[in-house]
Design goal:
The complex is a heterodimer of chains A (209) and B (101).
Chain A: H1 2-22, H2 26-46, H3 50-75, H4 91-112, H5 133-143, H6 146-167, H7 195-208
Helix pairs in contact in A: 1-2, 2-3
Chain B: H1 5-25, H2 29-54, H3 58-87
Helix pairs in contact in B: 1-2, 2-3
The chains are: A mainly alpha (209), B mainly alpha (101).
């Protein structure tokens, strides 16, 4: 039974991930992301991490993806993207090589370790069963890690203020982003000359024109 | 058959690689953000699996903090994307090379 649930949710997770990668429409990518996040939540339940499974569904699927969809709709970028364009030559083969080698290295590491993952069993915060999970997690968070919890609260406050500041509408005309002027090789070589010569050159150029 | 922890770790590795390839290939900044979320979820899955293997709650505690940081990151990142897209419609990641020098 556990194997069936694992393989079913693994298939859901991987098809969702490939869907995010290959869908041309950002809205479809966001919906595939929801599929992957739900699959990961099922895997969390399978490993008795019930609180994290609930938080995964509420925070990720409920808040983060909704935020993505909201921004997609707000900006009006919900049209299909042409995936055939490859602006940097060799970007996709290189990315495929990097991804394949990353996956190959990680999977080789797992295959070489015939005994599976090793390590000392934890003693400081023992893992309870599924029904006990939320209470134990709360106890560990608000006793041993209370300073980190306070820091995350500060981080969330800073993030909210930052988002409001970043997304506010500026009064007055919007300034466009500066256009980069690429320096050419015909720069004046005597840039360190005195102001007199520069003025002379300017007057000469004006007279010539 | 018994599903060991190595299966979960392998799934996390594959998911992480897919996210990395997506981050490197896609040009829409929103989709790139989604690929970052995929990679974060792969690492979360690894944390929970190793925590369950070793009987330690530390893995789940780490996932809790990763979730909070990911939420903050998405909020700030989407704010930046909104600010950019307002000034330049339909910008892709390739158009945002002003800081590239």
């Amino acid at each position: 039974m556990e194997a069936f649930v694992f393989f079913a949710s693994a298939a859901i997770v991987l098809t969702g991930a490939v869907g995010v990668l290959t869908s041309r429409n950002p809205v479809h990518a966001a919906l595939f992301l929801v599929q992957t996040l739900f699959g990961v939540a099922v895997l969390f339940v399978l490993q008795d991490a019930t609180f994290l499974a609930a938080v995964q569904v509420i925070v990720y699927a409920g808040a983060v993806v909704i935020l993505f969809l909201f921004v997609i709709m707000l900006l009006g970028v919900d049209r299909a993207e042409n995936l055939g364009v490859e602006p940097i030559v060799g970007q996709r083969p290189l990315a495929a090589v990097i991804g394949a080698s990353l996956m190959g290295m990680l999977l080789t590491l797992l295959l070489v370790a015939t005994d599976g993952p090793t390590g000392a069993p934890g003693r400081t915060a023992p893992l309870g069963d599924a029904g006990d999970n939320t209470r134990r997690l709360g106890e560990a968070l608000f006793t041993g890690h209370v300073f980190a919890v306070e820091l995350t609260a500060l981080l969330l406050t800073v993030a909210v203020v930052g988002a409001v500041v970043l997304a506010r509408t500026v009064k007055g005309p919007m300034q466009p982003l500066p256009v980069v002027v690429v320096a050419t090789s015909t720069e004046p070589a005597d840039a360190d000359a005195g102001p007199d010569t520069a003025a002379d050159e300017e007057s000469e150029e004006a007279g010539g024109a | 058959m018994v599903v060991t922890t190595s299966w979960y770790l392998a799934l996390g590795a594959v998911l992480f690689s897919i996210g990395a390839v997506g981050l490197l290939t896609r040009r829409n900044p929103l989709v790139m953000f989604m690929c970052v979320e995929l990679m974060l979820n792969a690492v979360n899955l690894t944390f929970v699996s190793l925590g369950a293997e070793l009987g330690d709650l530390g893995g789940q505690l780490s996932v809790f903090f990763v979730l909070v940081v990911a939420a903050a990151e998405v909020v700030v990142g989407l704010g930046i994307i909104v600010a950019i897209m307002r000034r330049r419609q339909g910008a892709t990641a390739d158009d945002l090379s002003v800081l590239g020098g």
